[in-house]
Design goal:
This protein is of the alpha+beta class and about 325 residues long. Helices cover about 30% and strands about 25% of the residues. The strands form four sheets. A seven-stranded antiparallel beta sheet has the order 4-10-7-8-9-6-5. A hairpin with a 4-residue loop joins strand 7 and strand 8.
Length: about 325
């Protein structure tokens, strides 16, 4: 979709010889436009809830909330939080974890939905054979241990996690991601059926709760607080990688229109390793074009381009966001 958006933007700009935007400028504008559209999903979802409460929302094909939910859920991910120390499986006194980020989980968190605590460790051991997307361990019996589909598998050495797709036999599990690359890597498996939601509290409140044995968090009723890029979980016994899992909305990946130069002209080439398309659905292409045109109009100092894009965005009303 990104090449179609760029071609449309350039076509509008070139129609009246307004000017040209370079690939680097286009990528900057595309990033900002995608973020704007992304954040509108959440405000629009709130509007649909208000519309439902006032009984002014539609149903069936006019059910805007359903379409918004499906789009938003494509950005909803679940990741095990990374502890703020190494060799986490040997340290029992720390309970601090990094918030999801590109460095820790590979995704930047836009909004935390829930943080869960997996309170039952089924097994901790080492793999004995390396097979792609397979956890093989000759020293345990996965069937006898009760490992089942959906259980969380964590590599305690590389701090990567995945889940069980299928219990092949007593010593082999099919896993969703290939997180084991060498023999002898430490791993743990947590039951996906034994979990509880961790309650979020402020730093001030957690101090008061911990001051009394009657109100302090327990493994049955855990709590967490956030300070900077750190999640602190209580009680402190919740401190190992794989125990704490965040369900959150991630930011969309930064779009990048990639190209090769032929006869002095930039020609679209999506085979480049850093190529990244928009993550928006097709129906948002119009909005992306109009928002990029607004940035381009400011960049080339053509007020008429910006005014045209704003007018079109308001007039066409292609989605719910322009109807409110």
């Amino acid at each position: 979709m990104i090449n179609s958006v760029r071609n449309t933007v350039l076509s509008v700009l070139n129609k009246n010889n307004y000017g040209y935007i370079s690939p680097s400028d286009f990528n900057l504008f595309a990033k900002q436009a995608q973020l704007e559209v992304y954040e509108e999903y959440f405000s629009n979802y709130n509007k649909t809830i208000n519309a439902e409460n006032t009984r002014t929302s539609g149903a069936d094909y006019a059910d805007i909330k359903k379409a918004l939910s499906e789009t938003m859920e494509s950005f909803l991910v679940s990741d095990s939080l990374i502890p703020r120390y190494s060799n986490n499986y040997t340290i029992e006194s720390m309970n601090k974890f990094y918030l999801p980020s590109l460095v820790t989980t590979g995704n930047e968190a836009y909004m935390i939905s829930k943080i869960m605590y997996y309170n039952t460790k089924i097994v901790q051991s080492q793999n004995t054979v390396v097979i792609q997307n397979i956890l093989h361990d000759d020293n345990v019996d996965f069937v006898d241990l009760g490992v089942s589909i959906g259980d969380i598998v964590v590599n305690l050495d590389t701090l990567e996690s995945t889940f069980v797709l299928y219990v092949i036999d007593n010593i082999n599990l099919e896993i969703a991601s290939d997180i084991f690359t060498s023999v002898g890597e430490n791993y743990a498996i947590y039951s996906s059926s034994n979990l509880s939601e961790i309650e979020k509290v402020s730093d001030g409140k957690i101090a008061l709760l911990n001051s009394s044995p009657l109100t302090s968090p327990t493994t049955i009723y855990p709590a967490y607080s956030i300070s900077g890029d750190t999640v602190t979980v209580y009680p402190s016994s919740i401190n190992l990688y794989g125990m704490v899992n965040a369900i959150y909305f991630r930011y969309p990946k930064e779009p990048k229109w990639t190209y090769i130069t032929i006869n002095g002209s930039a020609v679209f080439d999506q085979t480049q390793p850093d190529y990244q398309d928009f993550e928006m659905p097709q129906e948002d292409e119009f909005k992306l074009v109009m928002k990029i045109l607004q940035y381009a109009g400011v960049s080339i100092r053509e007020l008429s381009v910006t005014q045209f894009a704003i007018a079109q965005e308001q007039h066409e009303q292609p989605t719910f966001s322009q109807q409110q």
